[in-house]
Structure formats: structure tokens, C-alpha cells
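Q: Entry one of two.
A:
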Amino acid sequence: MTRRFTTAMIFSLALATGAAGSTRVSFMRTIPPAHQLPGERVTVIYAIGDNEVVRTFVDVFVERTNRDRALQIEDATEHGNHMVGDHPDRQIVRRIRREHPADVYLGINHFTCESTEHAGDVSSYNVDGVRIKRHQVWVDMLCRARVDVLDAMLARLMSFEVQGEGTSQRVSEVTTDDRQIAARQAARFAAISAAELVTPRQLRESIELDESAPAFDDSRPLLAAERYSDVRALWEAALRTNGSSAALHFDLAAVCEALGDTAAARVHYLAAQRLAPSNPLYRSELAMFRRRSEQEKR
């Protein structure tokens, strides 16, 4: 059977192929935590709150934080009363240091949960297929906590606040169990928030390359194998005779960033922007590079 393609169809196919087949550089980058803890060994020595789901908060916080191997966190909250003030007794310091040696200590303080009840009417069908209205109630829970960061001598270095929200199912009457379910959910989300504030995050970045650059075709097998060091060497050699190529500078910038050489990446991103100031891809990626660089400095 003979297929006939109109000019519009051929143009649409070309656009789809180009969009789907664009070559990219992909890499992982690390964003430092909002609160960088000194050292690698961490021990939680107290957890004080007005709700028993503080235990949920500690369990989830320790489990989530330990997922990142940059920190080794121990839960010592059930091993005795380790509550310390702003001027801890030397004997308490020595005992905690002996029983739980760590680079930094954490305390969960002022853990509290507040509930808000809601009600509303919903329509549903009974077993006879008759539409009826049902009155339902539910409770929203907000849990807050202060995380104290203590140095090796149990002197407070800093504190930060976290919170999480939870909600119960919609029922005809809210029970104590419903409230506890909402509270545990809120404590869990507060703990996840706390863990994210003290652990680095891994993000995958993907940068579309400019395939019009000199020597690009020669680099395709290397790019497919993610041999970025070899790609960089190939393009740097091509740059000696194509120094005015904005596309080559841009592609080099992406590869340098993937290899972790942000200083070289900055030079080449700026060169590409200077040589082709109206190119939207270059302008956009330069802005994204600057944003990524600021995130990594925090």
C-alpha cells in the first residue's frame, strides 16, 4: 500500500523526531541541607512533648535521617532522662558522652499537636438507590516541634522549628482513635520535614545539548556511554579551531557542570551567552546554572 504524506505531516514528524531524539547530558548533584550538622555521628538524647506521638516523630526522624549515609544517627531517648538545660551539669555531660559518644546531639523540644474539627453534609446513595444526605465530621491535626542542636559538650548551637499536618477520615463521629491517626500522620510529616532539613538532597539534572556544535557527531558514542571526561577532551580540542562557536561553548559548559567543574562551566556558559545573546536555550540554561550554584552554596 502506498502512503502519501502532505508537507504539513512531514513537518510535524520532523518536529516530533527532533524533540524526542534531542541529546542530553544527565548528572546527579547534591544540595546541602538547610542546617548542616557538625560531624557525622548524631545522637537524639531527649524528646519532650504533650502528645505521645512524639515517639512517632523520633522513630520516623531517625529512620529518614539514616537513609542518607552522610549521617549516623542514634536514638537514645528511651535510655534515661537526658534532658539538659543551657548550662548542663558536668556529671551529666560526662555520662552522656560516655554512654553515647557523638559529634553532635539533638533534642526534640516543645513537641505539641493542635486539632481542628470540621463538619459537612455529603450526598450518597443508600442500598435502595435513593440519594440521601449524610452528616460527616473529621479532624485536622497540626504538630509542631523545636529541634535543639547541641555540641559535644551539650551546649546549644542552634534550634529550628518544624511542623506537619494530618487529617482523619470523614466519619459520623470522631473518636479518640481517629484523633490519634491524624496526630501520628502529622508527627510523621513533621519528622520527614526535620530529616530533610539536616540531610543533603540528591537531584538529577538533564541539560539539552546543541547538536549544531562542531565535532558533535564524533562525540555521540561517548555521550551515549556517559564518558563525559572523554567528551570534554574532544570538545576542548575542537574549541582550539572553533573558539567563536557559541554552540561548542554551551555544550562544553554542560559537560563541565556534569563533571563537577563549575568554574569551567561558568566560563563556557557566559561565553555562549556572549557569542549568541538572543539564543533562548543558552539564556535559560545560564539562569538555571546560576540558580543551581546558589542552591549548592547554602
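Q: Entry two of two.
A:
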Amino acid sequence: MFKLAHLSDVHLSPLPPVRFSELISKRITGYLNWKLNRGGAMQDNVLDGLVAHIKHQNPDHIAVTGDLVNLALEEEFEKTSCWLSQLGPGESVSVIPGNHDAYVPGALKHGLSEWKPYVTGDEPDPEHLFPYLRRRGNISIIATNSGKATAPFMATGYFDRQQDRATRLLLDREKAAGQFRVVLIHHPPFKEATSWHKRLVNAERFRRMIDDCGAELILHGHTHIDSFQTISGGDNDAPVIGVPSASHNLNTQASGHHRPPARYNLFEITGSPENWSCDWSEHGYAASQSGVHQISQTKLWSNGKLMTSS
């Protein structure tokens, strides 16, 4: 059995000191949002408790689907690099960027340099970092990047033609090899997933790719809510699963955020293409309980068939 843990939207806090020169950009709106709103919702002690619970599960691999930072400051990337080293070694943790990691032009390049052990595939492409592939047993993790610098008040994502072509090749190759294919993307790719200014601009391109090539599991973040949808995926529909922010505190009303407290997903995968089995459980905080608890459990795949539909 292979255990895959999924968390997202870490938004590591507290925010480091910000120089005035760094705010002469889109960062000014993000900084004000942090001071007035988001900073009260994201708490490191909540994240620490969630990570401790993940480690207690002893997963074989951890997927982090973006937004590790807030304003894409250099000090933030350095801090998240340290946090990732505590989460696990590079070969056991796969990271993709989110829109906050690409907040302003040029910032993501620095972040990816800091995170190199966590964003490098088994066979690195010297020209394109994404998508990258990691094979772990009979599981293939295919990591894409939808994060791109955008205008103020926009948080859209992009899935370009280069990634489309390269990801198709990986999906087809790993299917032929009999692998359970897990695709990582920050922005949710299904219809009406979020508001217009936060959408995946090229979502139709991503969905066409999955319709043509299939995938056993698609994991995303971005929305800060728990979600389950399916999109057409060839022989079977492909499940698309999102997770709340990994650092969202319990007192959501007081913080002004109407979002679930922090959670992570755990997937237990066994079998082969003819008889894949995958149990999906959600773990996190609840207002009525202290600490992290199992919230739900679902049989996702059984005997090679997807068991649930949206």
C-alpha cells in the first residue's frame, strides 16, 4: 500500500518585515489584505499540529499544491525552504507553485531555486521545469504549474500549450507502464470552480487533456475549501479533489474568513490498472474538538473502477 498525503495553501506566517520599496507593486494590495484580513486567519501553530498529524500517519509521499508564501518575498521563500526540510526530504515531498508564489514578475524564479530538491523530477528537463514526473513504486506524480504573476486584484492561473504537450506525453507513457497517475495543479480545473478573477484561464485545455489521456487522481488547492468533482477522463471519470488551507485557524468567524479550518487529505493506494483500490480520508480541525481528527473516509477506487461521482 502506498500512502500519499496532500496539503495546500500553507501561507507560512508570520510575514517578515517588508521594505517600502517592495510594496511599490502588486504587493501593496496583498500586504493590506494580510494586515486587515488574512493574517488573522493563518496561524503557524495550526499548521504545526496538522504536520505533526501527517507525520504520525507515516505517509510514503507528501504533495503540497502551492501557495507556500504570501507576498513572494525573498525572506518568505527562504523560510519556506526551512519549513520544507522539516516536512521531509526532497525525494519524499513534491511541491508545485500557486499564484501567491508567483505574486510579482521574477519572484517565482527565486522561489523555485530555494525549493529545488522539492520541484525536480526524476528526469529533469533542462529547458522546462514543469511538468515534472516522480515515480514512486506504482504511483506516478505528475506536477504542473498554474502559477503566474498577474495584475492587482487578480489571482488567475494558466496552463499553457507547452505544459499541455509535455503533460500529455507523461500521462500516456505512465498509463502504458501501468502506473496510478496523480496530477498536481494549484488552480481547480473543473467548471465554475471559483470566481472569475481566481479562475484557471485555460481550464478547457486541461480538461481536454484529461479527457484524451485520463488520470486516476487530480489534486489542487487555491480555494481554501474541501471539494470533490469529476471530469471526463477517457475510460473512467477522473476525480478532482481540493483541500482547505493547511494553516487556517479554527475561529473562522472572528478572522473574517468563512472557510473550513485546516485539513489534509490522505490517499491509500493499492493494486494495478485492472483492480486499483484507493481509500481517501480527510483529517483536520473541527470547532467542537481539540486537535486534528479524521473527518471523513471514502472509497474512491475499487476493483479498477471509480466509486464516486460529483
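A: Comment on entry two: The helical segments are 27-41, 44-57, 74-87, 107-114, 161-176, 203-213, 252-255. Residues 161-176 form the longest helix (16 residues).
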